[in-house]
């Protein structure tokens, strides 16, 4: 059960500058008064009765808090405190200052596979802990893989954003159609019972992109992307994988498997020869191979542009909605419209993927 404090956050923390803004609130630097340690305070508006398109549903916040309070691992963002007032909830989280892993890599001129493997190993260690706790992330993608900082020679990976995560209960079936098209597993699209194996599919996609700068299933539309996933339509084009080791390709192939029961687990990934080589030849192959930096930089630039475009689009929708709220006189209808818009305008996880597929067939 999620634990919320009724105290005033300002009694225990000094509120600092704004670090970022989202659809439902702001992230501010906060300093613990007793220790002086800096944290990130996530100030979230809670949706109340009436038109509140910027408010979050309290149950969604409570769900994420429960997940984070159950996960204490060096490669998972740490939740320290949660405060609740009448109009908002404040999550006091570990301050992560290193930015996204993909942005960090894109700044480099070159990167050997052995260096990429060190990052993948940390991601897998975080996932291993989650999965042993019967928790799946269900939204693994570059935006949710961060670095603790950039100043240390070997920065720590931090997995973030557990809004779609699920804690499995033995004997209870779980299905969901939420996810991001490029990274979502086939069983999500087919609305089949899910397991932690869905995260491993996403790891396969992320590894493919990291090494080649190409997305294995990306189509011109979300619907085309989803169809490619279901059809298992991908290949290792020599143009993008000419510097990739055969072990890396084998690693990806053992994850991009349609039957979730046949996919490697996080434990098995950590023992795969690409991650943990057994022979000198395997070590040599990794050390000679590198990622396609030119293609990777291009992919990352396009990804960042798309994120910025989506944010502007969402902000415009919300601004128009606020104007609508001022002029419409039917509060019940208005509330439904605001709630619908708020749900649609979150991080565009392309919920109801199965409906998209069926409607375009």
TrEMBL record:
GO terms for biological process: intracellular signal transduction; positive regulation of apoptotic process. ATP binds at residue 42. It comes from the Eukaryota. SUPFAM superfamilies: Protein kinase-like (PK-like). Residues 13-275 form the Protein kinase domain. InterPro entries: Kinase-like_dom_sf, Prot_kinase_dom, Protein_kinase_ATP_BS, Ser/Thr_kinase_AS. Belongs to the protein kinase superfamily. Residues 338-361 are annotated as: Disordered. Keywords: ATP-binding, Kinase, Nucleotide-binding, Serine/threonine-protein kinase, Transferase. PROSITE patterns: PROTEIN_KINASE_ATP (PS00107), PROTEIN_KINASE_DOM (PS50011), PROTEIN_KINASE_ST (PS00108). Gene3D superfamilies: Phosphorylase Kinase, domain 1, Transferase(Phosphotransferase) domain 1. It comes from Oryzias melastigma (Marine medaka). SMART domains: S_TKc. Signal peptide: none annotated. It is an enzyme of class 2 (transferase). One of its GO terms (cellular component) is cytoplasm. One of its GO terms (molecular function) is protein serine/threonine kinase activity. Its EC number is 2.7.11.1. This is non-specific serine/threonine protein kinase.
């Amino acid at each position: 059960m999620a634990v919320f404090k009724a105290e005033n956050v300002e009694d225990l923390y000094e509120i600092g500058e704004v670090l970022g803004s989202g659809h439902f609130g702001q992230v501010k630097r906060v300093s613990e008064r007793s220790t002086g340690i800096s944290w990130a305070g996530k100030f979230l508006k809670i949706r109340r009765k009436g038109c509140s398109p910027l408010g979050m549903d309290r149950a969604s916040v409570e769900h994420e808090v429960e997940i984070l309070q159950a996960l204490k691992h060096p490669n998972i963002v740490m939740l320290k405190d949660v405060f609740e007032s009448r109009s908002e909830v404040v999550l006091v989280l570990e301050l992560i200052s290193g930015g996204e892993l993909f942005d960090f890599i894109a700044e480099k001129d070159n990167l050997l596979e052995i260096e990429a493997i060190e990052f993948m190993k940390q991601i897998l260690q975080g996932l291993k802990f989650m999965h042993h706790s019967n928790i799946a992330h269900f939204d693994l993608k570059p935006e949710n893989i961060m670095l603790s900082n950039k100043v240390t020679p070997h920065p720590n990976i931090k997995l973030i954003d557990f809004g779609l995560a699920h804690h499995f209960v033995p004997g209870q079936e779980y299905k969901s159609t939420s996810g991001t098209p490029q990274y979502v597993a086939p069983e999500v699209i087919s609305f089949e019972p899910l397991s932690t194996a869905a995260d491993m599919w996403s790891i396969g996609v992320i590894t493919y992109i990291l090494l080649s700068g190409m997305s294995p299933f990306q189509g011109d539309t979300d619907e085309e992307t989803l169809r490619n996933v279901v059809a298992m339509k991908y290949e290792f084009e020599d143009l993008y994988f000419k510097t990739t080791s055969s072990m890396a390709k084998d690693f990806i192939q053992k994850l991009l498997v349609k039957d979730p029961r046949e996919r490697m687990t996080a434990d098995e990934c950590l023992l795969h020869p690409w991650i943990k080589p057994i022979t000198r030849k395997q070590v040599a192959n990794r050390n000679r191979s590198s990622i396609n930096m030119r293609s990777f930089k291009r992919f990352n630039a396009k990804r960042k542009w798309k994120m910025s475009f989506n944010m502007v689009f969402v902000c415009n929708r919300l601004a128009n909605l606020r104007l609508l709220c001022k002029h419409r006189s039917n509060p019940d209808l208005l509330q439904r419209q605001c709630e619908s818009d708020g749900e649609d305008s979150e991080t565009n996880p392309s919920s109801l993927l199965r409906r998209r597929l069926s409607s375009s067939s």
